[in-house]
Amino acid sequence: MPRKKSAGPPSFGKALTDDPDDAPELLDEFFRTGEIRIDGKIVRRGRPPLGEQPKSSVTLRLDADVLEAYRALGRGWQSQINADLRRVRKLKKA
To answer: Which one, of 75, 94, 65, 50, lies nearest residue 85 by Cα?
Structure first.
C-alpha cells in the first residue's frame, strides 16, 4: 500500500534526532533574524515604507450615509475615497 503524504509543512531534510527534547536551543538571534511565512510569502512586521510622496492625514466630515457606503466596501475604503476624489478632480496619479 502506498504511503500517504503528510499534510504538514514540507520537510527540509532528515531530522537530526528522533527525540524532540534534543532540539537545539532557540537563541535571541533566531527571533531577531527569523522570518514569518504564510503560504510561502514573507510576512513583514510594521508599517510598509512610505513612498516618495507619502499621504497626509486629514480630518474630513462626511454625511452618515456616504460614510456608511464607503465602510461597507470593507478593507481599503479610505483608499477608495482617495481614488474617487482623484477621478472626479481629474488628477493624475502621483
So the answer is: 94
Per-residue pLDDT tens digits for 58-94: 999 999 999 999 999 999 999 999 999 999 999 987 6
Q: Tell me the three cell numbers of residue 17.
A: 534526532
How far apart are alpha carbons 82 and 76 in whole angstroms? 10
Query: Any bridge partners for residue 38, and if so which?
Result: 41
Which 3 state secondary structure label does DSSP give 92?
coil
Could you tell me where the DSSP H helices lie in the chain?
28-33, 64-71, 77-88
User: Which three three-digit cell numbers place residue 54?
Assistant: 507619502
Burial category of 70 from C-beta neighbours within 10 Å (exposed 0-12, middle 13-18, buried 19 and up):
middle
Maximum Cα interatomic distance, the chain, rounded to a whole number of Å:
68
- CA dist list (Å): 63 to 59, 66, 73, 85: 13, 5, 16, 15
Q: Evaluate whether 23 touches 17 at the Cβ level (below 8 Å).
A: yes
